[in-house]
Write the structure tokens for this entry.
Amino acid sequence: MSRRASAASGPLRRAGAVALLGVGAVHLEEFTGDHYAAIPTIGTLFALNAAAAAAIAVALWAPVGRVAHALLAAVGVAVAAGSLVALVVSEQTTLFGFHETGWRPAIVLAVVFEVATVVLLGTAVMTTRAEWTPSRRPGDPRPA
């Protein structure tokens, strides 16, 4: 893998961490400002989402090594993608007895952050994975 590709995972990871922090911030704002805290199960899930997003985002900036960063990025993708899926489900039907309606600014912002997180951290994981794959030169025998 080239040095340029190797260097790409760091900025992608950091940008993804910022986007993930945005996911958590939107969920925290809805938990506190939009009174989601009063909604059974959903309120707890919003609080857990905010805490997990913040913890993972901070850890993604820590000097912990490529393997740990790749694992953290994958978990960040799971948090953001899970949030997005839960939103779609709650828009279409009920989720734990809760039905979301309308596309107010907080929901649009959450979707933007969630999609950005999935794209940025997903790309960082794939870039890091490519860094681990040994490159072959033309004419090298295929591994068994």
In short: Residues 1-6 have pLDDT under 50 and may be disordered. Residues 3-132 form one domain.
